[in-house]
Protein 1
Amino acid sequence: MEINLEILNNVANLGSKKVSESLSSLSKKSVEVSSVAAEISSVKIILNEILIDEDRAIISYAQMISGIDGMALLTIPREEALILVDLLSNVEVGSTGVFMDIDRSAIKETLNILSNSFLTVLSKELKIEFMIGSPIMVPTTSIKKLLEKVSEIEKGEIVLFTTSLKISKHQIRAHLYIIFNEKLAKLLEEIK
Amino acid sequence: MQLFFSFRNFARALKNLLHCYINMSKDTAKILVADDSAFMRNVLKNILENNGCKNFIEAADGNEALEKIKTEKPDLVLLDVIMPNVGGIEVIKEIGKQFKVIIISAVGQEKIVKEAESYGAIGYIIKPFDNNQVIEEVNKAIG
């Protein structure tokens, strides 16, 4: 796979613009993509980031990518996921206290929008068609195990996009990781 | 002069008749909303309810969509692409051009859009959408 940092930075910029337009259209609020990083990195980095938040409940959703095999992973601290649901549902922040099915599906939709925003741009840049699967909620412990497995066997580099958001005045640490790694995609398929 | 007024009255009556017909279509048109996200199904239904549509059926995946298309024979299908089990493209491939289908999906890649159109989709809306775009496409399809 021939992806250089120049392409990745371009995709990160255009993709984040698309993300903010998308979420702002859905929530009818101003959306700022506060940090976007595109890097060629290792699975260990994500593992470390997830481990940092170990003391907090994290909601994570994953979806398979094909075209260049990989996985899109969205992680959000539980409290911030509740705020995100309220913002997307156009209700007062604090209204959602317990996740119902409808709230989970709002988070799923967020992953769809985020990953598609980046992949659509990347698809144009690389002239490769990507297809993504339906998002599944995966317990953070399973995600960690899965990443550890890949990290043990995979010495090579991976492409990584990370992003976090600010919707209205609320900082939502919704981290999206797009990881191109064939083994990771296969392991995720097994979880499914 | 009298002829002019008669024509004007006839035109007005025709316009009212068409207006009633269009509203009645919206009222009665059976719309299948197929999306695995209950959140998105609700968003779409709310937009369309505000546009006067009342008759909805829902499907949470491609299999359910196919089943409901066959049994309920909807006037219009709003179809997501990424769904569990059977995806939207496979659904439209199977039903062909027998039903009016508008794809509403976060997938905006050209190849998928063209594929959907080649199987008979009459519209392709990329999520997240502008509410007016949804209303416009639906009105075009059922009006």
Protein 2
Amino acid sequence: MRFLFDKNTWQEIYGSISKNKVRTIITVVGVLWGIFIYITLAGAAKGMDHGFEKAFETIARNSLFVWAQSTSMPHEGFKTGRSIQLKVGDTNALRNKIPELQYIAPINVKGAFGDSAATAVHVDKSGSYTVWGFFPVYAKIATKKIYDNGRFINKEDMLQARKVCVIGERTQQELFDKNEDPLGKYIRIDNVYFQVVGVHKFSQSMPFETDGDIIIPFATYKKLYNTGNNIAFFSLAAYDAADAVAVEKKIKDVLKNVHRVHPEDERAFGSVNIGEIFNQIMGFAEGISFLSLIVGLATILGGVIGIGNILLISVKERTKELGVRRALGATPREVRALIIMESVFLTLVAGVIGIILGAGVLALINALTEDIDFPYSNPTVPIPYVLGALLVMVILGTLIGLIPAQRAVSIKPIDALREE
Amino acid sequence: MIEIKDLHKSYTMGSNVLHVLKGINFKAEDGELVAIMGSSGSGKSTLLNILGMLDEADSGEYTLDGVPIRDLTETKAAKYRNKFLGFVFQSFNLINYKNALENVALPLYYQRMPRKERHDKAMKYLEQVGLKEWAHHLPSELSGGQKQRVAIARAMAAEPKLLLADEPTGALDSTTSYEVMDLIQKINDAGNTILVVTHEEDIAHMCKRIIHLRDGVIVKDEKVEQVRASAYV
């Protein structure tokens, strides 16, 4: 191994590589392309991964929405087609029977599902907005970013059924003057005054949400619209370890039981399972990552085989040179080492340039997609992957170099010299 | 310096066995300048290749500077070549992508001499063959005579015990041939042992002894009056 760290060895290799520029460049391009493709694909896949994660960052991964519809099967004397109404009391049944559930937030809403929206008025400005009745716990399921100095509705608001609201960005723009601070101000929602305690930054964590939504405490909503114990739907989150699909089934089973619906009635309750969708998308992203790994490695392999190919031809071209070297005292070992080191050196140089170019392209794509709505963010290739790819290349470079190296030493010096 | 006894070598070409060397015996002392003459097919190049450890005899003994040369592995042969022998070829065999200096320094690289020392020494030998100014030129920029002088400098750089020249003037015109022979004579004058394979009478007579080979045997071994090449230059 001593020759590895010998400056002379490297000078000899550098000499032989640098004096044959065209050959060297063609050789390098093959592997460079391979590693470039690998880095770009792997990075882009990771970027997509990050993009999807970012798209889901405002909502708990294991969350789902459940609402009631009408029955499609007769049960316990009830006719088919009976409308089901979810009740606040269902919360306790769910909490008691499904330990996997971390958060349960009953939700009421006006103006989201085809009914008329609420009218909100501030001084001389007014508009129509969807009004949501939330439990404070909803913030744990879907994060609502609140602008500075404001707050989300809290427990006290609920207990006292305070007339406070959190308004959307658009609501603020439409109801308040440009430089007016809405916090602490009162707006009239369907003729009842509410104090604005926060402005939320819009992020889509469930369908039907808009940037004009007004959020009020669930208890206040109940009084305002006289909804009693009725609720529109449930937003729930299971613990991270729980299986989203199984939890969904359990929830529906409990609700069917409480509302006396046939256990096999699939239409009585509707749901959107964010956890399941998330898992599907992440599975897809993982598949892409895996694919990019395979394609990248295959391309690298192709490039390295190209190096071997060119070295093989070059050994034939250099038969005489190698013969002279041996006449001058090069041992077969030294000749073999020269060829292998050339192979490894070219592979490494090509690899490093490829990695740099790949990183450049990833940075470029990142810059270009930064401001558009595209699930792509922070494309990275983990360092172990990069080092792994380099290691694979060194190993492959050595292995592929063995073939021409063996060819080089199998030619007797006398035959090499005789060849005119 | 060299002693060979009953050297035999044959090549198998398909079903034919070609007996090239049929029992060669000869001795060469330190400081001799020997020409090996013979027509093509006489076995002179084969003999030189065996002496140069590029090829191995089928039977017979070969002693070089008191060291018996036998059972050579490629690695051992390479080490002996590096330590004992300098080669000069008809077609020069310079490495075309290395300049004159690097070519001369190459055997020293295989002696693991540090770069600086190697280049100093190579430069010294280039100066001896009168090509100091051409040190950084590629072989393609040199004339035939210059290339052969670089090759001789390369052969001498490793300070071999024996210089083997295989038709050193074969690719050169007469004037250049005499220049190269003049150089070889001067190296011999300095005390080096040299073997020259040639088929040219005038070149052979510039040596001190001529061995005539025919059909694989020595037919004549004579000491001659050396003709100085400098007389022609």
Protein 3
Amino acid sequence: MIRVLIVSLVLLLSAATLHLPSSNAHAEGVEADLATHHVAVKTDFAGVNVLLFGAIVNQGDIDNLALLDMIIVVRGPEREMRIRKKERIAGLWVNRESATFDSVPGYYATLSTRPVSEIAPSYTLLQNGIGFTSLQGKLILSSTGFTQGNAKDYAAAVVRVHQSQNLYQELKGAIDFTGQHLFRAEFELPANVPLGDYTADVYTFRGGELIGNYTTSLKIEKSGIERFIYELAHQQPLIYGIISVILALAAGMGAAALFRKA
Amino acid sequence: MQIYLPIAEQSMNVFLVLGMGGIVGFLSGMFGVGGGFLMTPLLIFTGIPPAVAVATEANQIVASSVSGSIAQWRRKNVDVKMGLVLLAGGVVGSFIGVALVKVLRQMGQVDLVISLSYVFFLGFIGTLMLLESVRTYYKSKSGNAPPARRPGQHNWIHKLPFKMRFKRSKLYISAIPPILVGLLVGLLAAIMGVGGGFIMVPAMIYLLRMPTSVVVGTSLFQIVFVTSLVTILHSVENQTVDVVLALMLMAGGVIGAQIGAIAGQKLKGEQLRALLALMVLGMCFKLGLDLVIEPSELYSLAPALEAH
């Protein structure tokens, strides 16, 4: 599996840069894992921190270590999102223009040793979808319904709105190295985090060149009673509505009976 | 302590939710008002999406009005025929209101319409309540008794067709006005998450000229059925009823209402009523301000809903 990854990585790199990474007999790479692959959203869910840890493998020239950079990108499930812009009409701020982005990640976090723009050229970042700038570029490509070539403003707003909800994060210097090979990093999934399949990609760079890449995944699901309620509400909405009414009737009458006795 | 709300898809402090239910329950127990027009704006202020706040509040009102309506039923204070005519209008209003919310959600205008409706109605109710309490205050100071209400006169309502006899209310009037009142109340229940008593009770007294003894029972009778229907319709059309939030609000509300009812018997009401009026006007002002002041973020995001 790792070999496949490395081989594909080498192929990718050779395609991208037209020459193979130099001298190393074994390609230098990275391996990583998450402390948990499954986050259950239960009644008391108020967000969670997830630990990602790993190691640099097949490291060649140790003198070169100072130049090693790492970016971790955590991406949430993509959804079709509609974005609206408010305008002042008759003194009121009202939603007017709107546009749709076909695939907006519900969560996007980058953790890096340095600001991502200093780690690699924008071309490499864009190709791998690393950083908010690349994300905005990708959003513009998947957009529909723009009236005045304002896709750029809308894409920037998508990032800004998510950032204000703590769903998009850019954390510089958030990766801790232990010794020469081991590293660990923690990212926060806030309480409003969308549910679904997440991926965490670890990219290593040396001198601006991508030298290693490892992907691991995470699933966030409602569980227990939360899951039951959500599924009932969306799959059997009529039954859900009737149950809600029966519960309310029972609660109201039960309370009345209780207080009449007291 | 946080609790995750499965439909609102966010977590909220348990004590905040119970406290809001308790305070609104206290006020409604004390003043005999329904809590919907207080609770829905509070939920919106705490960050619950307005569409979820409205539908969830309709669910809560089912609980807060059912025991009262059963008590009124036992005392035979319900004009069933009038209640059913009001309900007929209410059913139509609920269907229209829920469909309207669905369309407005797709257009991205639901928040605006809910806020505007609240600015209008809170401003109206708050002003009336404030004037009423100020007037009563001066009346009690000068020692004059409030003037007796004039006996019912024949008005334009008696010229309308489709007259029906309402024995319990001792009325022989057209079915059109009660149907229209019911329809308006159904619309308000669906769009604002209120029971609509604040519209229905004055309409019954001043417009339909029903005897006051049956007004409260008959309006509660209609409210239970209309809010139940609105809860089911919102569940089916919009999936915006958060039953976990509703149950917590009910728990807080039930306790608050009991304490409020006791407090209402012991405390002098007029100053407190003025305070409630100021609170209502304050919420009206805050909602209005949020519409007028340039928001710090002009853009908003929502999952794309397909138009059916």
Protein 4
Amino acid sequence: METLSSVRRPVRELRPGDHAWLAYSGEDEQRYVVGSFVRDGLDASHKVIYLAGSDDVDVPGMNGTPPRSGLLTVVPLEEARRPDGGFDPGTVLEALACEIAGAEGGDFGTIRVTADMTWTLDLPDGLTQLLRCERHIEQAVCPSTRVTAICQIDRRRLTADARTALAASHSTVVTPNPEFADSVLQIVRTFEPVGLSLLGELDASRHMVLDQALNTVLTASRGEEIHLDLAGLGFIDLGALNMLADVAARRSGTGPLVLDSMPVQLRTIMETVGWHMLPGLRLGTV
Amino acid sequence: MTSPTLAAGVAPRPLQHRAFLFGGMDDFLSRAVPFVREGLDDEDRSVVVVVAEPRLSALRDLFPDCADDMFIDASAFYAHPVRTLRSYLELVKREHPLRVHALAEPVWRPEWTARETLEWARYESLINEVFKDTGASALCPYDTFALPPQILEHARRTHPRLVQGDAERPNARFAAPEDFSAEVDRARVFPAPHESEYLPVTGHDLHELRRWVGERSERHGLSRQDAQNLVTAVNEVAANALVHGTPPFGVRLWTEGPDLVCEVGDNGYWNTFSPLVGFVPPSSALENGFGLWTVRLLVDLVEVRAGWDGTFVRMRLHR
């Protein structure tokens, strides 16, 4: 979506040397992806360096348990504030570089760095500042055999040109971990719109995992429409239509389940069945 | 069965389903015009005219004030028996609480095989079951000058009342839908193919089966949509066999003239089988019977054979 030149990779598949970016649509997506990154890192005893807006930030992925001493370092953005109150990207980068260097001196196998860089866009000539930061990080991370980095940026703040420029300055686009993946089907959460993206083939052997993933989304949702992005779906069985209609019926009153980007042959099958047979399901974007 | 449009607490409204045996245009109009007018004059009814040319144009000219979408060309509407039934069902649901008042002329094509003609007759018969409590009124014209005696005989077997000349009378030859359907089933033959391919289905993951059917559909010249329809239908029947049937399970595929045929078999005996199974539409995907009903929509012909030697579902698509 962001670019054709970047590699898209689920957060759990990031490797040392990857300088990835996450163009999040809102806090839910940001916490979901960054939470996986932080949690997996701490579980594997990786060093995690988290650039935060303030000292007492609620780091995602902590599950309420404090990490082993020394594993997690929070670098407050406040420390980069100049005496006149402005921010200085140079200071921030210096603080980050210092933490990375310190960690490299330790016995951590892998160092995970993540920072929400959206604040740079508030600076005068923000995009230029951001791209300058990104170049510094790129130079620090890419040759490394130990550092993995995710730069987070609020997608709502980006113009199309800014996206292109950011894509060019990162090797990888990070995506959420799939809720489920086997050789036939992959289910990935989406956040804008809220829902799931399905890739591959959906059949009776996989109804259970879709039901679980849908329940996860429904639990996290705030009553908004739930969308299923079916652009990558090659097959859907009739039992799955029955199951989706059932899910829609269970949450009646909160809006339909919307089926987006349905491949034409699957859409024709739905039309043959007749939408009146499928209460609570609606065709979204084609 | 509960009627698709019957709300709880509302008294059922019986269906009127009459065959209208006419000869020539004047005879046709002498009955068809008052029937349409009767519907238009009743504010409780919604009129639809599904007849073939030249009768369609003749009627349209006589009702110049009526909306154009009230007139539907039967030769396009009667293209696939299950889909035609579905379209009538959609119409009845859409117009509810108005009662559908339909001049509904089934189309009979001389090039059809006896088998195809029988399947259409089966659907005329099913109308009695599917719409029984909807209060719909259907007058079904049969052209006695043009249609062969066999088809006029079907008309008498599938409509509880007959209209001819000035007279309307109950029809003693009428057969209940279940009996008629069983009769149609008895007339079937299941020739074994000379040459076929066979895939045993051993596990519960049907990915390999779909790939197998998809590849062969393409090789035998089905369009991409027909291939997707067949794969979906075979997958559904096989998934159902795996749940309810008895091993061994397998799929056989062959060509027969212009048709591609695919048969899913298992060794189980379907002891609750009824001649109406999968013919009566469920009211939604949430009801039992949605699977087989939809399979019938997706391919050209489905034949279920439930015998002591096993249960076999044969699906056929025109290439």
